[in-house]
Design brief:
Order of helices and strands: EEEEEEEEEEE
Distance between the termini: 31 Å
Helix content: under 10%
Largest sheet: 8 strands, antiparallel
Number of helices: 0
Number of strands: 11
Shape: elongated
Radius of gyration: 20 Å
Length: 194
């Protein structure tokens, strides 16, 4: 989540509530965190901040400033409405998509949440017409989200936000239990205001 696990003492607390009625699901699950953020030796940054990354083009701070950090994050807070297999949501809940070498780059909760809206199909059983044979389950979702740049990347205010456009679709065949085939696609483009 939003916890920066820097040097020293780190802690994160979360709690929440969920209400389901009339096709709506309201989840409130924020996170508060604290990081002592003690000093350690940094590699030479290629950004305008001494805390930025040591390779260009990546917004991955080595350290978040000199002071301790107190953070509030909306975490898995969201509102969702579903009708049969259709679902529509708005909030901050983090999608989990795909494996990766260092971090699940396609989506996970390894960073602060971001605001998003989505629409899709919940996991749905598929039966062949006329025969009634169960062939498996399908699931799909598309979403739009707004990503924010850290304070340690660059000093250009024109590129502080990015639009994340994504889709995910999967099929779990009934004849191979435990197998799920999926396809994911994510686009990140700049947002300019003014």
């Amino acid at each position: 989540g939003a916890l920066w696990q820097g040097k020293g003492y780190n802690t994160s607390l979360t709690g929440g509530a969920r209400l389901e009625a009339y096709g709506f699901e309201v989840t409130v699950k924020p996170q508060v965190s604290f990081s002592q953020n003690r000093e350690f030796e940094l590699m030479t940054s290629v950004t305008s901040s001494p805390y930025g990354y040591y390779q260009s083009g990546i917004d991955l701070p080595q350290r978040f400033g000199d002071d301790s950090l107190k953070t509030f994050d909306w975490g898995d807070t969201e509102i969702r409405w579903s009708w049969r297999t259709l679902t529509f949501g708005a909030g901050f809940q983090s999608p989990w998509l795909g494996p990766a070498w260092l971090n699940p780059m396609l989506g996970s909760n390894n960073a602060p949440s971001y605001p998003k809206i989505d629409a899709g199909l919940r996991r749905t059983a598929v039966h062949l017409p006329w025969l009634g044979w169960y062939v498996g389950d399908i699931e799909g979702r598309i979403w739009l989200g707004r990503l924010s740049e850290s304070d340690y990347f660059d000093s250009n205010p024109d590129n502080n936000y990015r639009l994340l456009t994504a889709m995910s679709a999967s099929f779990a065949p009934s004849f191979i239990p435990g197998l799920t085939l999926g396809v994911n696609r994510i686009f990140i483009t700049g947002l300019h205001f003014g």
